[in-house]
Amino acid sequence: MILDLYNYWVVIFLMMSGFYTLIASNHLIKKIVGLNIFQSSVFMLYISMGKVAGGTAPIAAEGIDTYSNPLPHVLILTAIVVGIATTSLALALVIRIKESYDTVQENEILELDRISDEETQA
Amino acid sequence: MINEHLPALQVVVPLLAAPICFLILNNRLSWLFASLVSWLCFAMAILLVMEVKDGAVLHYEFGGWAPPWGIEYSVDVLNAYVLLIVSGIAAVVFPYSWTSIQKEIPESHHRIYFTAMMLCLAGLLGMTITGDAFNLFVLLEISSLSSYTLISLGRDRRALTASFQYLIMGTIGATFILIGVGLLYALTGTLNMADLASKIPALEGSRTLQAAFAFLVVGFGLKLAMFPLHLWLPNAYAFAPSAVSAFIGSTATKVAIYALLRFLYTVFGADFSFNFMQVQWLLMPLAVASILFASMVAMFQDGIKRLLAYSSVAQIGYMLLGISLVNITGLTGTLLHLFNHALMKGGLFLTLGAIAYRVGDTRVKSIAGLGQAMPFTMGAFVVGALSLIGVPLTVGFISKWYLILATLEKGYWPLTVLIIISSLMAVVYTWRIIETAYFQERPANAPEVKEAPLSLLIPAWTLIAANLYFGINSRLSTDLATGAAKMLFGGSLL
Amino acid sequence: MNFIIDALSWACLMLGCFLGISGAIGIFRFDEFYSRAHAASVTDTLCVLFIISGLVLQSGFNLVTVKMIFIVVLLWLTSPVASHALIRSAYQTGLKPKLAITRKESSKRTQS
Amino acid sequence: MSAINLLIDIVLLTMLVFTTIAIVRSRSLFAIVMLSGIYSLLSANIFVVLDAVDVAFTEAAVGAGISTVLMLATIGITGYEQKKRRSISRITPLIVVFITGAVLVYGTLDMPAFTNPSNPVHEHVAPRFIEQSPTEVGIPNMVTSVLASYRGYDTMGEVIVVFAALIGVLSLLGIREKKTDPVYTEPPPRPILQVMAKFMIPFIILFALYVQFHGDFGPGGGFQAGVIFSVAIILYTLTFSQQDAMDLVPPWVLKRLAALGVLIYGGTGVVSLLKGGNFLDYNVLAHDPIHGQHYGILIIEFGVGLTVACVMILIFFAFISRGDKNP
User: Fold this and answer.
1) For B154-167, how does the pLDDT look when each residue is reduced to its tens digit (9 = 90+)?
2) Interface contact B152-A116, CB threshold 8 A
3) Does residue D129 lie within any of the structural domains?
4) How many contacts (CB atoms, under 8 Å) link C and D?
5) CATH topology assigned to domain A2-54+66-121
6) Is D327 in the same domain as D183?
7) Closest to C84 (Cβ–Cβ): which among D192, D199, D200?
8) CATH of the domain at D4
9) D46: exposed, middle or buried (C-beta count within 10 Å: 0-12, 13-18, 19+)?
10) Which residue of B205, B393, D187, D299 shows the fewest CB atoms closer than 10 Å?
11) Which residues of chain B neighbour D262 with C-beta distances below 8 Å?
């Protein structure tokens, strides 16, 4: 049982650490790092599914008859690209936030937002 | 020949129009091109609806590879219906954009705006039409990335924070969906929705299947702003440029609801979702909470856009309520509300855009006296507000009527009362606006305000008129919604 | 013959590992940026050479060997330059090397 | 899985766990960013152990390369230090994380066993890819066949996602040309780095081309090639100056090319449509289906490479042109 599933469990631990960093940290860049870890661990979950005992990389070659499953690899290639796209957009937003708020701490930003909200109400 | 490729063209045309929009250097040409493409999409959606409205299902295999090996698009009544909503709203919002963004977005960004809108449209259409679970994720990300961009175009700096928050929540949602799809894949070895649906019944009781279900529901819940995961929505709608609020506010959450329905009914099957997982008992309290809470908050908002955003959260509550009733009437109500809410919120946001164009501001107090200064704009707003409340002869009434029927059918009369109470709350929050506009004098020092230009009024009135038309002659929308609801329940009526 | 190649290759691998580990220990034990960077960069190049020659001996001569030799060349070119760039920018941002540190001072620093 | 693979897998996973714990606990942003690069590199190693060479390649180039560079550029603007936060409750996030983790662990209990060849994943769709793609599509790298042909539409979506990210970054940051800036001064020359960069850049570009065109036979393809190509330009920008790089590859050209790459991909689909096949059906591109597949994959991989390279360079330009200092 442990040997059957250990890989998934470690990956879940990593995933949850990333998820925790993402939702608990106060610094926007650290959040993005958390997001990256969260996503990379999901990628590992997929790739773990594709592994076949005794298999090799799915590139057809003479004298090999067991290959690992290529489909998860394809999916994750796409997902990695989506990940970097999201990361770069998020970082660009962080730069703009820094320029307009002069801080990248979430609590300070929310505080400033609350103040502007009150000003609009007044 | 074209007909046969219609499902693919529906998405590929806007998808490829986006880079072309970016390559056209002239802003006006870029806008004309984008508007044309949006009309073309609408026309294609109409053709698709014609083809499938009698229950036919169209399939399209990308690359000529048969599913489950290749990616498949499949169009049935439900997809076509949602396609019609999304492309219809786009066909109105794109022409509207030109005048609206002149004052809200710097000129250097106009081309980027049209490109991003085009990408967003393509992503939403693709999410609706695809028959492949992973392809859904990819298209979801296309539409999400472009909507983050669009929201961040807002003038206020809070647009940036709103966009960032949406990005974080949206990406968590997308990753949850990815996990859910991954677990399903691990169990079945396939990604095609129809294929998944044929393999899942054999797995009932598998704990992995339950986890996949949970992740998909939460993931789509984040995307559709299900209470209490709605926190990203109010600011995102409030600070985005008006045309963007109108487009995203009336399409993005609808498509997410569609995707949830698709997974609940088609992929997992109604039996698994509602009999085994009993998801309705999760959705119902959340729906009730979101209707009450969001309507309550909306009553105390001073920014009209944020008020409408909270009202959207409440309306999403109605849609979830319809799903949680698990009968055909309720589901019809949900589907009708998808259509009707898109019409009313689209119309209201477009009207607000016209106000923002003339007044430069959309706070409740800054519209004082506009009833006289901008009679056509405010007239449109009043009709939209009536529709939001659910007054007979407007579309709002039709969907609420179905929901009330569904609650009575089930005998859940407290829910009937809830729907009526929340309609009264809608009266309260819209009345504040109408009162300020018609019964308060415009402040003496305020600058003179003219009626909004026709290029804004015509699109806004188009949607508002649709509110009335489909409120009076609701055959088209009800037929489609009933057909889709019946199809979702299939033979297995609960 | 096989035995000799095997032994040679294992010797290379062991030596490479030793150098790598000593570099890592250096990074942890030295107390100042420049000596740490020194420890890491100097051992790095030789460690790579030994490990890869060990692997080359194992694999025999084929396409993989050529690729591995490429890797050695590449790392020998880039790794010192990378260390240079790192140290240079550290120096330019104002981190001053602490040259003559007496044993007494250094033990004081570790205590504090 | 053989014992040695198992061992390597476990060691790498342990290292990943330590890296993650360090990231969660660390306060220094610089360390966090570098650790996240290390995390990516370690996960790339795991991917190699798990036979996903293409994925490992991409993860190493993207996760450890590009995204670390972008993050460093960002913290160069926002500052390295994380302020001490006031005591905000961490209970809620912990509860959320525990529940999510618990659901996942619960879900894995019925997961098919790791590496077992009779899992449904290996029995339903994949066998066709493994057994028939070398004859149906005609190239040995199955990942490329699936990526470019069977699921070519996903890959088109992926290119569009990259393009969407470009649109977003351009909208948010824009690219400022330093030349027009009055206070701009040329950075001082850095002879050692510049000589080295001049020597390396041709090889990097050569390698990018190899990866681009050898992707049918070995790991690699348009995406990886694009990233590697962009790395050559990034290296040039870092060792020389941003202005030099922008003179070499002007942003306006890159913007056109990025859009063109998407259109090349989509255009291939449209051509196959006009030739009577389905969208992205390469069989109809030539008289012989296998040749058609070859042409199709070659062209779309080129489109992918073009878009990705241009987008990565542009995003990098946008990030560094925002900072006050030169890199």
Assistant:
1) 888 899 999 999 99
2) no
3) no
4) 13
5) Helix Hairpins (1.10.287)
6) yes
7) D192
8) 1.20.120.1200
9) buried
10) B205
11) 16, 18-19
Q: Count of B–D CB contacts within 8 Å?
A: 166
Q: How far apart are the C-alpha atoms of B304 and D163, rounded to whole Å? A: 34
Judgement on whether residues D208 and D322 belong to the same structural domain of the protein: yes
Q: Please report, for chain A, the start and end positions of each structural domain, with discontinuous segments joined by +.
A: 2-54+66-121
Cβ of B152 within 8 Å of Cβ of D104? The answer is: no
Q: Do A89 and B134 touch (CB under 8 A)?
A: no
Residue entry with tokens 């407007």: B394
The answer to whether position D88 is within a domain reads yes
Q: Which chains contact B through at least 3 pairs of Cβ atoms less than 8 Å apart? A: A, D
Judge if D248 and D282 occupy the same domain: yes
With an 8 Å Cβ cutoff, are D196 and C88 in contact?
no
Q: Which two tokens stand for residue B174?
A: 């997308």
> D2: domain range?
1-124
Q: Are residues D116 and D180 in the same domain?
A: no
Residue B494, pLDDT score: 39
Query: Which residues have C-beta within 8 Å of that of residue D285, sequence separation ≥ 6?
Result: D268, D271, D272, D275, D291, D292, D295, D296
pLDDT value at position D132? 85
Listed by start position, the domains of chain C span: 2-111
Cβ pair C81:D190 closer than 8 A: no
Number of domains in chain D: 2
Q: What pTM, to 2 d.p., does this model score? A: 0.94
Tell me whether residues D196 and C81 touch, CB distance under 8 A. yes
| Interface with chain B: mutation pick from D74, D110, D123, D300, highest number of B CBs within 10 Å | D110
Q: CB distance from D201 to chain C under 8 Å?
A: no
Domain ranges of chain B: 279-485
Q: Which amino acid is at A10?
A: V
What is the residue-wise DSSP string for C31-66? -SHHHHHHHHHHHHHHHHHHHHHHHHHHH-SSHHHH
Reported ipTM: 0.92
Closest CB from A31, A38, A100 relative to B160: A100
Picking from D124, D156, D191, the residue at the C-terminal end of a domain is D124
Same domain, D187 and D304: yes
Asked if A80 and D125 come within 8 Å (Cβ–Cβ), the reply is no
* Contact flag D322-A95 (C-beta cutoff 8 Å): yes
**What φ, ψ does residue D278 adopt, rounded to 5°?**
-80, 170
Q: Which of D153, D170, D265 best probes binding to B when mutated, by most B CB atoms within 10 angstroms?
A: D153
Q: In chain B, whose CA is at the least distance from the CA of A97?
A: B160
Q: Does A21 touch chain B (CB under 8 A)?
A: no
Q: Do A68 and D155 touch (CB under 8 A)?
A: no
Q: Is residue D50 part of a domain?
A: yes
Cβ contacts of B334 within 8 Å, gap of 6 or more: B257, B261, B318, B319, B320, B321, B322, B323, B403
Same domain? For D77 and D151 the reply is no
Instruction: Say if CB B74 and CB B131 are below 8 A apart.
Output: yes
Q: Which of D17, D53, D74 sits opposite A94 (nearest CB)?
A: D74
* Tokens describing residue D29: 């942003």
Rounded to a whole number of angstroms, the distance from the CA of D140 to the nearest CA of chain C is 18
CA separation, residue B212 to residues A48, B176, B177, B208 (Å): 17, 9, 9, 6
Q: Which chains touch D (3 or more CB pairs under 8 A)?
A: A, B, C
* Residue-wise burial string across B398-420, b where 16 or more C-beta atoms lie within 10 A, e elsewhere: bbbbbbbbbbeebebeebbebbe
Write out pLDDT tens, residues C23-34: 999 888 888 888
Q: Give the pLDDT of chain B (494 residues) as one tens digit per residue.
A: 577 889 999 999 999 999 999 999 888 999 999 999 999 999 999 999 988 888 788 899 998 888 888 899 999 889 999 999 999 999 999 999 999 888 888 888 999 999 999 999 999 999 999 999 999 999 999 999 999 999 999 888 899 999 999 999 999 999 999 999 999 999 998 999 989 998 888 887 789 999 999 999 999 999 998 888 888 999 899 999 999 999 999 999 999 999 999 999 989 988 888 888 888 899 999 999 999 999 999 988 888 999 999 999 999 999 999 999 888 899 999 999 999 999 999 999 999 999 989 888 888 888 888 888 888 999 999 999 999 998 888 898 999 999 999 999 888 889 999 999 999 999 999 998 888 888 888 877 777 788 888 889 999 999 999 999 998 888 888 888 988 888 888 744 43
